[in-house]
Amino acid sequence: MEQLQKQLEQFTDSLDKTTFRPLQKKTFDCSSKCCDDAKQSHETFQRCIQNCAATMQEKETVVNNELQIFQQKVQRCAQTCNDKAQSFLESDGIGGMDKAQRKAMECIDECARDYGKELKAIQRRVVG
Known about the structure:
Blueprint: H1 2-34, H2 42-92, H3 97-116, H4 118-127
Helix pairs in contact: 1-2, 1-3, 1-4, 2-3, 2-4
């Protein structure tokens, strides 16, 4: 699971540097141009600012949704591992606790490896 956490940190760092920062710059540049026309109404100015921010907000929503779905998948997988370990413990009794814990951790590590591979696909979807 530690490896998955590192992969997720690398994923978000890369997304920040390659996608969000350039997009934020475009948003700021666009917003500054909204200030150029002092004759426009307050409503027009606000609409201009909102339009500039729309792309950034949409991208953030897409990324947040993807990461939420990803997190739910990982949590469901880990819960399944814990359920299997619990079943193992119930059939083997208290003496099998160490084995059940080891099996649960192995299963959770497998979840992390499997879902870690999905991060590249998520990145392609959110950047594209």
